[in-house]
Amino acid sequence: MGHRLAARRDALAPVQRDRVALALVVFAVLFGQVLLYPGVTDLVAALGAHAGSATGALDASAWFLGAEFVGFVLCAGLWGHLSDRTGRRTPFVVAGALGGALGYLVLVLLGRGGALAYEWLLLARFVQGAFTIGAFSLSMTMLMDLEGGHGKNMGAAGIAIGSGTALGAPVGGQLYEMGVFVPLLVAGGALGGAALLATRVADRAPSGTTTGLGDALARLRETPALSFPYAFGFMDRLTAGFFALVGTVYFRETFGLDAGSAGLVLGLFFAPFALLQYPMGVLSDRVGRKLPVAVGSLCYGAVVVAVYLAPTLALAAVAMVCLGVAGAFVSPATMALVTDLANADDRGVAMGGFNVFGNLGFLGGFAVGSAVVEAAGYGAAFLTAGLLEAGVVALALPAFLRLDLPGSPTNPK
């Protein structure tokens, strides 16, 4: 008996080590990304964007943040296809992380002094995003390839995402106090470290797959249930994008915060979001995906509005904590739902599709948020974001609750 337990521990040790390594890669990507958010209006001004007014600053920042997410949207599925087609993941994760690191450094080199036209910097930002999504999406796909419950593996991804964003916001705010380009340098260093770390992770991709992108997408069309996690992921990322841009500027203008303080306020959302990811992923393995997704999404939409209605900074901070708790219910369960529904040899494309919809949500958050602020003010923008989140979930909820889901590996039907 003791020999069997020891053998099982020895077999699981590489899996646990790789789970930690992949989670750290995901962490590095999100940490570097969110470092830029607290002082993004200062950054785009230093890069040469002409944004004299508050709405002008929002527009220039939306273009800067949006350019990266356009790269995410256009290339997430491509990375997944290349990975599934070749039966390899690790080389693409390394290449994506290295390309993203170089992209951040190029922005620093080209942006100093505002000598280069802002449009060229947006192109560099797009290329940086196109590489970065390879490291992010395929690291999550590699977590899907690991043994153990899908909720556990996606919980590891979720806690990496939450921790990266939780630390990225306050640390980024403090880095802006040291210099407007310092967050870019640190982000590049984080992705460089992620590339080095990824070289030590074993490839567990299904070998010998010859599925073309058209065949894979055809099989995804045969699984219409994937539309549920894609839709929920879209809306959750929309509100995240909204807070990354509009929320940051709102806190700075309304409560007179500098970049460092704004980063701390954003961290009040991301800290509980991070700490609860793993236990909520395990919970979804035990109780199923439906309850966490339904309850968390509806509460999330309501709390978005509550953040704006809070009359003081202290109450707004409490609302941000509640927002993080609600988000933690949704994120790992939604990602695990993609894993439950996808075939083993389609996981790269399935997760790529999830990230495409999620990144479209981020783009929507930037675009819708800044447009509504310009047209009708912050109150209408917060109300729009909250109603979109809760409304889409409420409309989809009856069909989602009737969905016949496969059991997770740790809780089979």
Automatic annotation (TrEMBL):
The chain crosses the membrane at residues 20-40, 60-80, 92-110, 155-172, 178-198, 228-251, 257-279, 291-310, 316-338, 350-372, 378-401. It is found in: Membrane. It holds the Pfam family MFS_1. GO terms for molecular function: transmembrane transporter activity. Residues 225-413 form the Major facilitator superfamily (MFS) profile domain. SUPFAM superfamilies: MFS general substrate transporter (SSF103473). PANTHER family: TRANSPORTER MFS SUPERFAMILY (PTHR23521:SF2). This is MFS transporter. It comes from Halarchaeum grantii.
